[in-house]
Design goal:
It is built from two helices and three strands, in the order βββαα. A hairpin with a 4-residue loop joins strand 1 and strand 2. The longest helix is centred in the C-terminal third of the chain and has 23 residues. The N and C termini lie far apart (67 Å). It is an alpha+beta fold. It is elongated and about 70 Å long. It has a three-stranded mixed β-sheet, with no helix packed on it.
């Protein structure tokens, strides 16, 4: 590496997650915070959390069902 053109590398940078877990990684920043990590992410932890604000999940499911119905109608009317 050439001097004076690369950022400072911190081999023991601290990463703090919103769930409270901390990690030590190598980074160009000395410390930073993240909102989600492998300990609290539903894909990695196996626990799904559905945060439904104003019925968004139900609205999405309704739109998906409606979209599925229109494609079937279009195929049947094309014959």
């Amino acid at each position: 590496m050439q001097k004076e053109i690369h950022p400072t590398y911190f081999p023991n940078a601290k990463v703090k997650c919103a769930c409270g877990k901390t990690y030590t990684v190598g980074s160009t920043r000395e410390a930073f915070e993240v909102e989600i990590c492998s300990s609290c992410h539903p894909f990695y932890s196996g626990s799904e959390k559905i945060i439904d604000t104003a019925g968004r999940v139900e609205k999405f499911k309704a739109r998906k069902a409606k979209a599925g119905d229109t494609t079937k109608k279009a195929k049947t009317s094309a014959k």
